């Protein structure tokens, strides 16, 4: 590794965040950072490879690097959504790390911070979830319109006609029977939660699987939550693996608008045996309350065969991988209906939403 220079640049005030984590983990700040760099170097990072800027140009952090550096990356994302992590070859042709980072290296500068310079993806809500809580189950927003804001997420169709999963830009409906179908762009939705899934922005959570059996859903959520560097932003979450069992639910299509709490009394619950599939979901900060979206975790499931799925109540993961993507921006639409414009939304929806979930 002779001649290789690795530079970490953290946003202002991150030292305090590092110190808090170091104390909690009984490590020094230096040990915390260096141990993750060593892990990356042991796996062959940074590898010599050609770049647009030629020999010596900074190489952007790759996804395989973020697997080894996920903790360091998370810490940086907590403050500003970017980390400067790059290297120079032994020839030194790209100049010093500072000059490249500051834009003096031509195409080399374009590569620096490539992973985190672009804007973070946003959590997009087609409508506040309070609309469903209060029984406003119909909107004029089409699925195609909602998909302008993301290719990953969940939701429902008008009249609460089943559960929706959005994976890789395709929308699947899980009906009350548990059967799945692809949803057309002209179908209408009263609520969808979406983002653009960006693998290069996500980090992998190293799941600790119990020796005694599958990882239960509550434990999975606990491990995911422990990996979050801040409780004050949104996160998209994707868990793919083999499950021993899942308990799911899907709501039945309503003939008339009625509050979500009453709808939930008649929801369909069912179990799926051993299967491979993906949990698609979000974690939302608690300060959003219960009016915009559901605080904490919200997961839907889609089997790999695309034939089964639903809202997740319980899961038992035998093996799998979990990925988390931070979302620093929030955007929400509003229902385009007279019912929404005239509704009294002054009461706290928390009790009803918790009961429905």
From TrEMBL:
It catalyses: (2S)-2-acetolactate + H(+) = (R)-acetoin + CO2. The keyword Lyase applies. Residues 88-109 are annotated as: Disordered. One of its GO terms (molecular function) is acetolactate decarboxylase activity. Keywords: Acetoin biosynthesis, Decarboxylase, Lyase. Pathway: Polyol metabolism; (R,R)-butane-2,3-diol biosynthesis; (R,R)-butane-2,3-diol from pyruvate: step 2/3. SUPFAM superfamilies: AF0104/ALDC/Ptd012-like (SSF117856), Ribbon-helix-helix (SSF47598). It holds the Pfam family AAL_decarboxy. The keyword Amino-acid biosynthesis does not apply. Its EC number is 4.1.1.5. Gene3D superfamilies: Hypothetical protein, similar to alpha- acetolactate decarboxylase, domain 2 (3.30.1330.80). Residues 91-108 have a biased composition (Gly residues). InterPro entries: Acetolactate_a_deCO2ase, Ribbon_hlx_hlx. It comes from the Eukaryota. One of its GO terms (biological process) is acetoin biosynthetic process. Belongs to the alpha-acetolactate decarboxylase family. This is Alpha-acetolactate decarboxylase. The lineage of its organism: Eukaryota, Viridiplantae, Chlorophyta, core chlorophytes, Trebouxiophyceae.
């Amino acid at each position: 590794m002779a001649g290789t220079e690795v530079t970490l640049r953290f946003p202002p005030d991150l030292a305090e965040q590092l110190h808090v984590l170091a104390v909690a983990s009984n490590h020094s700040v230096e040990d915390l950072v260096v141990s993750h760099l060593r892990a990356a170097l042991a796996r062959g990072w940074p590898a010599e490879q050609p770049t647009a800027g030629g020999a010596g140009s900074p190489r952007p952090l790759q996804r395989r690097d973020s697997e080894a550096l996920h903790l360091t990356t998370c810490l940086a994302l907590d403050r500003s959504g970017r980390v400067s992590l790059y290297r120079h070859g032994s020839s030194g042709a790209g100049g010093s790390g500072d000059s490249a980072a500051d834009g003096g290296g031509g195409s080399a500068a374009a590569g620096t911070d490539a992973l985190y310079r672009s804007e973070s993806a946003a959590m997009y809500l087609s409508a506040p979830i309070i609309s469903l809580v209060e029984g406003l189950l119909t909107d004029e927003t089409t699925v195609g319109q909602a998909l302008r804001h993301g290719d990953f997420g969940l939701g429902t169709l008008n009249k609460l006609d089943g559960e929706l999963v959005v994976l890789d830009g395709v929308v699947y409906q899980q009906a009350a029977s548990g059967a799945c179908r692809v949803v057309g762009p002209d179908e209408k939705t009263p609520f969808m939660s979406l983002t653009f899934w960006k693998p290069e922005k996500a980090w992998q959570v190293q799941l600790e699987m119990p020796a005694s059996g599958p990882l239960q859903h509550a434990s999975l959520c606990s491990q995911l939550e422990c990996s979050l560097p801040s409780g004050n932003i949104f996160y998209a979450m994707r868990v793919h693996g083999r499950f021993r069992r899942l308990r799911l639910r899907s709501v039945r299509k309503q003939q008339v608008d009625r509050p979500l709490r009453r709808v939930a009394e008649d929801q369909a619950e069912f179990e799926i045996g051993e299967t491979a599939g993906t949990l698609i979901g979000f974690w939302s900060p608690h300060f959003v309350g219960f009016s915009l979206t559901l605080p904490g975790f919200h997961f839907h499931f889609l089997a790999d065969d695309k034939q089964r799925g639903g809202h997740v109540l319980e899961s038992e993961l035998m093996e799998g991988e979990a990925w988390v993507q931070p979302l620093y921006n929030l955007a929400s639409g509003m229902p385009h209906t007279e019912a929404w414009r005239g509704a009294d939304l002054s009461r706290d929806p928390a009790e009803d939403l918790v009961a429905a979930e």
